[in-house]
Amino acid sequence: MASRDQEVTLLSAWPSPYSMRVKLALALKGIEHEDLPQDLGNKSKILLESNPVHKKIPVLIHKGKPILESAIIIHYIDEVWPETSPLLPQDAFLRAQHRFWSDFIDKKLSDSLIRFFLSNGDAAVNEEFNQNCLLVEGALAELGSEEEGPFFGGASMSFLDVLLAPYAVWIPGVEQAMGLKPAKCPRFHKLLTAASEHPSAKVALPQVEKLKEYIAGFSSK
Ligand SMILES: N[C@@H](CCC(=O)N[C@@H](CS)C(=O)NCC(=O)O)C(=O)O
């Protein structure tokens, strides 16, 4: 178990892909923490006080100080607990590449999947999401070595793999509940399968069936 792991609290919500990322990073590093699931329809005092700007989860509270935004939280976790499962590459150019694709994943990939979900299955948004998946497929071919393993980090999960892992349940969940037609991206698919089979995914990712029911319930409202 990693040291300096006292006083770590996570404000989360189980269906949130951003919470899943942080849970996965904590599990990969073996960081003990208290998970405080949040009701986003009735936001708690601790959530409003720790994230007064966006009022969103996830929030990581370490030694009383809140750290916000999932990608920033994962950077923080990697900096404070660098010994176990390092996530960001050492090389400055590769670190810059990871930051570039992190930005793409949040601004383009996540955004198009969320818009598909909110539009109740718009075909044009489906196509936009697929184009974004194909760009991730290209990045994997460029940055990841297929001989070493399925991840951007080769055999072990790196920062980008942690950011992408929630898609292992969200893509099939949206596919089954809302008819998303995903593009054929064999490398990306392999990455997601390996992420879902990783021992740390057991605590970080929900079952696809449970998420599918949640998405179906949401879309029928
Ligand atoms: N960019 C943020 C996104 C976090 C986010 O969108 N959280 C959602 C749950 S998935 C939330 O808290 N929504 C509550 C609200 O919008 O009021 C991150 O990466 O942490």
Automatic annotation (TrEMBL):
<feature type="domain" description="GST C-terminal">
    <location>
        <begin position="91"/>
        <end position="218"/>
    </location>
</feature>
<dbReference type="GO" id="GO:0006749">
    <property type="term" value="P:glutathione metabolic process"/>
</dbReference>
<feature type="domain" description="GST N-terminal">
    <location>
        <begin position="6"/>
        <end position="85"/>
    </location>
</feature>
<dbReference type="Pfam" id="PF02798">
    <property type="entry name" value="GST_N"/>
</dbReference>
<dbReference type="GO" id="GO:0004364">
    <property type="term" value="F:glutathione transferase activity"/>
</dbReference>
<keyword id="KW-0808">Transferase</keyword>
<dbReference type="InterPro" id="IPR036249">
    <property type="entry name" value="Thioredoxin-like_sf"/>
</dbReference>
<dbReference type="InterPro" id="IPR036282">
    <property type="entry name" value="Glutathione-S-Trfase_C_sf"/>
</dbReference>
<dbReference type="InterPro" id="IPR045073">
    <property type="entry name" value="Omega/Tau-like"/>
</dbReference>
<dbReference type="InterPro" id="IPR004045">
    <property type="entry name" value="Glutathione_S-Trfase_N"/>
</dbReference>
<dbReference type="GO" id="GO:0005737">
    <property type="term" value="C:cytoplasm"/>
</dbReference>
<dbReference type="InterPro" id="IPR045074">
    <property type="entry name" value="GST_C_Tau"/>
</dbReference>
<dbReference type="InterPro" id="IPR010987">
    <property type="entry name" value="Glutathione-S-Trfase_C-like"/>
</dbReference>
<protein>
    <recommendedName>
        <fullName>glutathione transferase</fullName>
        <ecNumber>2.5.1.18</ecNumber>
    </recommendedName>
</protein>
<dbReference type="InterPro" id="IPR040079">
    <property type="entry name" value="Glutathione_S-Trfase"/>
</dbReference>
